[in-house]
Amino acid sequence: MGVEVERGESIRTWEHPGLRRISRWRWGHASGSECVHVEVGVLPDGRWYAERGGVARAYPDEGDARAVAGNLMADREGWREVPAVLGPDQQPKEPGWVRRGGEWFREVS
């Protein structure tokens, strides 16, 4: 069984300047009213967080945060990984992404 969401410390990500988003997933169309994101990242103090819809909790390690992210996505199918961070040019900051139409996809080697 995965890590329980409620176990982590409730945080407001906007109160942690310098956090780094590492992974992000989206459900629904990017411009749709029902678009939802789940993300995992690391806080400046080294703790990890999982967030869905603006509600975030901090965990001691990456494994816990990723397990919680999986739990947060378990209620619906169709989640898709999207770039964790886009730069000012709207290009992914990390390599390995290709744009097809209006969507970003992981490059297949």
Short description:
The chain contains 1 helix and 8 strands. It has 109 residues and is mainly β.
What does this molecule look like?
This protein is mainly β. Helices cover 10% and strands 36% of the residues. It contains one helix and eight strands; from the N terminus they run E-E-E-E-E-H-E-E-E. It has one helix at residues 62-72, and strands at residues 9-11, 20-27, 36-42, 48-52, 55-59, 80-82, 97-100, 103-106. The protein has a six-stranded antiparallel beta sheet with strand order 1-5-4-3-2-6, with helices on one face. A two-stranded antiparallel ribbon has the order 7-8. The longest helix has 11 residues, at 62-72.
Major sheet: size, sense and barrel closure?
6 strands, antiparallel
Task: Choose one word for the global shape.
Answer: globular
Which strand order do you get reading across the main beta sheet?
1-5-4-3-2-6
Distance between the termini: 33 Å
Count every helix, treating DSSP H or I runs of 4 or more residues as helices. Answer: 1
Would you identify the regions where 5 or more consecutive residues have pLDDT less than 50? none
Secondary structure class reads mainly beta
Strand content: 35-45%
Count of beta strands: 8
**Roughly what is the average pLDDT, rounded to an integer?**
91
List the helices and strands and how they pair.
Blueprint: E1 9-11, E2 20-27, E3 36-42, E4 48-52, E5 55-59, H1 62-72, E6 80-82, E7 97-100, E8 103-106
Antiparallel strand pairs: 1-5, 2-3, 2-6, 3-4, 4-5, 7-8
Primary descriptors:
single chain; 109 residues; mainly beta; six-stranded antiparallel beta sheet; two-stranded antiparallel ribbon
